[in-house]
Amino acid sequence: MIEPIDAVFVALGLTAAPPDGAEALTHGSWLNERGAKGARDYQRLEFLGDAVLSVCVAERLLRLFPDVAEGELSRVRALVVCAESLAAAARRVELGPALRLGRGAAGDVDNTNVLADALEACLAAVFLHSGLDGARAAVARLFDDAALIAARRDGLDAKSALQERAQAARRGSPRYELVRATGAENERVFEIEVSLEGLPLARGQGRSKKLAEQAAARAALPLLESKT
């Protein structure tokens, strides 16, 4: 039976876990509980993986959408590499069962930020083992053309669309308010609530306030349509 750590990297296109594979799936809590001297968690690899992922996705978007302007490409890339998207991809390759978590952090096995960060670390491990071509192949397995096309569709300016529909229905302008910000400074997740005529419509989350506002607007659009 294939080990969970190997299964993750097989899903990313390798035959087994690369040399840095275990580090890519090691949470800080695991090291703290064991006092593992000289061992590292996935944070350094996550730093590299974030850049590798961004390059691979940007390259794919340029080729897939040759006539799309930079601003829209940036919005699409932000949707693809956001924590929610990466966590969903991590679940598809069953990354959670392969995570090395301390007992005190066992509940983080399905945490959005943990899954997203560990997946980026895994992409760094693939890059260090198989180069950019290996990373390209891994990213393509996680996000095929259909996923990128769907991200572009979802990346349309939801805030503008919500504003237009609210005004067309003569319900004024939507208001966006920060509900909370959670996580460490380099892992901050913002939650925004959008309201209309003083009544809350929906909430959205993102790694920046702008992304959270867009997520809230996308969630609110079908609700507004159902009430107009």
Describe the structure.
Helix content is 58%, strand content 11%. The protein has a three-stranded antiparallel sheet with strand order 1-2-3, covered by helices on one side. Helix 4 crosses helix 5, helix 5 crosses helix 8 (145-154) and helix 6 (83-92) crosses helix 7. It has two domains: 4-154, Ribonuclease iii, N-terminal Endonuclease Domain, Chain A (Orthogonal Bundle), CATH 1.10.1520; 158-227, Double Stranded RNA Binding Domain. The mean pLDDT is 89. It has 228 residues and is mostly helical. It is built from ten helices and three strands, in the order αααααααααβββα.
Highlighted features:
single chain; 228 residues; mainly alpha; Ribonuclease iii, N-terminal Endonuclease Domain, Chain A; Double Stranded RNA Binding Domain; three-stranded antiparallel β-sheet; 10 helices; 3 strands; 58% helix
What's the topology here?
Blueprint: H1 4-11, H2 21-24, H3 28-34, H4 43-64, H5 70-80, H6 83-92, H7 112-142, H8 145-154, H9 158-168, E1 175-182, E2 189-196, E3 199-206, H10 209-227
Antiparallel strand pairs: 1-2, 2-3
Helix pairs in contact: 4-5, 4-7, 5-8, 6-7, 9-10
Helix content: 55-70%
Cα end-to-end separation:
55 Å
Q: How many DSSP E strands?
A: 3
Number of helical segments?
10
Order of helix and strand elements from N to C terminus: HHHHHHHHHEEEH
Total of domains: 2
Any idea of the CATH class of the largest domain?
Answer: Mainly Alpha
Major β-sheet annotation: 3 strands, antiparallel
- The CATH topology of the largest domain is given as Ribonuclease iii, N-terminal Endonuclease Domain, Chain A
Shape: globular
The CATH homologous superfamily of the largest domain corresponds to Ribonuclease III domain
